[in-house]
Design goal:
corrinoid adenosyltransferase activity; 5 helices; Hypothetical Protein Ta1238, Chain: A; PduO-typ; cobalamin biosynthesis; transferase; about 190 residues; two-stranded antiparallel sheet; globular; mainly alpha
Amino acid sequence: MKIYTKSGDKGQTSVIGARVSKDDDRVEAYGTIDELNSFVGQAISIITNEEKYEDLKEELETIQQELFDCGSDLAFVKLEEGNYKVSGDMAERLEQWIDLHQAENPQIERFIIPGGCALSSALHVCRTVSRRAERRVVTLGSHTEINPSVRLYMNRLSDYFFVIARTANVRAEVPDVEYLRSKKVFRSK
């Protein structure tokens, strides 16, 4: 099988059910999700202490599969609801993971700047790319019917990356990098 097909040489690509411009909102959305998936793979490759980060590695590997599901759901020009791969329970599971890992983190008082250990820094990259992917999904959904669970999942995913970036620092015994000019903006409940 040849990798290059030459079918996109004029700026068009195939999605499921049509041919569209390579800068179509649909292609931008699932392409940014694909980019995020690459960064998640990079974050996984940074994990050298399997024992310390085993749960995070397993969760990230699950997320990689689910990001493919998100892209798949967005690649269909017309998709029957019963054929969606992404469901609301996937976002609910992210919420459970967020709550679990947040309990491990110290109370946050100031804005956090990406940094700390290498894994935390990589997870902050995942967080920011996740936010961009979510924006691309929102743009697509503003004029095209999409699986709403993809938008929900992407919104929760950036929160998940923020929390586990902090957890990675906790486990590496490296403090979060606080924004120095920030007042204490988060309060204990």
